[in-house]
Each structure stands twice: as C-alpha cells, then as structure tokens.
Specification:
Length: 291
C-alpha cells in the first residue's frame, strides 16, 4: 500500500510502484488520509481518486480528525494521526514517499528540538512493515521523473506557509545553508544513517541495563540509582521509545532522572507531558498514556 497524498513525492512513488506491479508478484493499493484541514481537502481526495482510477489502483480515502489542544501543534498532531492511520492498514508492506531532502530537513529539525541521537537518526529506510524506497533520492530526481513521465500532482498551499516549522526550514534555512555548503542535504542525510547506528547501540545498552526486568513499566527505581547518570538517562529514553512515547526535552529529562536517583522515600517525582505521565510510587517508576 502506498501512502498517497497526491503531491509530487507520493505521485512518483505510486507511479513507480505501479510500473513494478505490472511484472512483479504483488497487489498494489493506495491510502489517502483526509485531514479536512484545508478548504481544498475534498478536491485533493477527488484528484487522488482520478489518478488511482487511471492506474487501476484501488484507493481508500480515510477521513480523520486532527485533535487540538494537545500542546503538540497542528502540524505534529496531523502527522501523528496520519501515521496511525497508515500503521493500522492491513497491507503486508506500507510504502511512504519520503526522500533525501525530507531526511535532511528532519535531521535539522530534530537537532534543533534537542531530541538527541534517536531524533538525529531521523527516518529509517525500513522499520517493520514500513518502507521508504525513495529515501536515498533528492527531490530534484523525483521532479525530473515526474516531468519525464508527464505526471500530474497537486500542491498543498500550506507547504508554502512559513509559520509551520518544517516549511520555515525547507524554504528559508536549508537554502541558506546549502548556499554555503552545497552538499549540506546529502551530508545531513548521511549523518542520519550514522546516528541510526549509534541509536541501535544505545538501545542494546539499555536492554542490558534492564538486567532481568522486562521492558515494561513500572520499573524498580533501584535500576536508575545503580547506573551512572548517562546510562540512567539512556534507559529512560529507551523505555519511552519502546512504549511509543516521545521523550521530553533534554533539560526536563535530565532533571527528572536526577530526581529519580536522589529523591527520598517521602518524595514522589512526577513529570506530565501532553500525552503521558511518569511518576514514582512505592519504589517504582510508573507510566501512563493520557491521550
């Protein structure tokens, strides 16, 4: 299944997958996630339906609600809802159209957000059923392919709105960096691969630091108190990641781990973010999703 927005990137991916499906032994379908955030959302869904009909590719249009008031912003909330819709699809393989320029943008965005090694690793080419076959290609290559095949795609007007952080990076910051460092995009994408290797090693270390405990909450506080600071922080990051929760920024994470290691039995450190809470009780670290 191709995640199909109707834009340039996913149109190229759908066309390429369709060409392969003519001779390869697989069934191809597409999923369009209808956020309803734009006045043009219905037109985009209609355009996707026309493209898929022309290729004889079955299309599912899934309408979703993007929650507000979660503290993560419209851009992040829409991305989270979209990813869940894609992950819930029963296809054997889910193809996404991220490319090398997206990878460079994600690395820079995550570094500026202070997300650490995992964030800097950005997007993997494959994880479980999810594949990103275009991740090694720059956007210019996709554009050349689309023009050579005379493909038609839609332009999301919000992509030009620099109030959104990713658009600001894409249209203003990355071009400025590239004017001084022409291979910046490729170098950032290559750095993501190296960060991914480092992240894998850190996960292995966290698994060792669990000792005989399963990777489930609640965890004994003694695990964090017996570890050096850096490894205690690494264990907490890994546990949150394994539970599909975004770790807090470094400042809050560092302070919370310090409290875990030093708080007396009469103190109950707690940290509550938009979508989950962590707290200490009876000598154990507890975790609960809030949304």
């Amino acid at each position: 299944m191709v995640g199909f927005s109707g834009g340039l990137d996913s149109t190229v991916l759908l066309h390429a997958a369709h060409c392969l499906a003519r001779t390869a032994d697989f069934d191809l379908s597409a999923l369009h996630v209808h956020h309803g955030l734009s006045a043009n959302a219905d037109l985009w869904a209609g355009s996707c339906a026309q493209v898929c009909q022309g290729m004889d590719v079955p299309l599912t249009v899934l309408r979703v609600d993007v929650p507000s008031g979660t503290g993560e912003g419209v851009e992040a909330a829409a991305r989270r809802v979209r990813h869940k819709a894609l992950a819930d699809h029963p296809a054997d393989w889910i193809l996404l159209a991220h490319h090398a320029d997206d990878q460079a943008e994600t690395v820079l965005h995550n570094l500026l957000r202070g997300t650490g090694v995992r964030g800097a690793a950005a997007m993997p080419e494959s994880r479980g059923r999810v594949l990103r076959p275009l991740l090694g290609l720059p956007r210019d290559a996709l554009l050349a392919y689309a023009r050579s095949c005379r493909l038609v795609w839609i332009e999301d007007e919000s992509n030009a709105d620099r109030r959104y952080t990713r658009n600001f990076l894409r249209h203003q910051i990355l071009p400025a960096i590239t004017s001084r460092f022409p291979r910046a995009g490729a170098q950032l994408a290559a750095a993501a691969s190296r960060f991914s290797e480092a992240d894998s090693l850190l996960e292995d270390l966290a698994a060792l630091d669990l000792k005989d405990n399963p990777p489930e909450f609640p965890l004994p506080l003694s695990l964090f108190r017996e570890l050096p600071d850096a490894r205690a922080r690494n264990l907490l990051r890994a546990m949150l990641t394994w539970h599909h929760a975004q770790p807090p920024d470094e400042r809050r994470l560092n302070e919370f781990v310090r409290q875990l290691q030093t708080a007396g039995n009469d103190r109950h450190p707690r940290i509550e973010l938009g979508r989950y809470a962590l707290w200490c009780e009876a000598g154990r670290l507890h975790f609960k999703k809030l949304a």
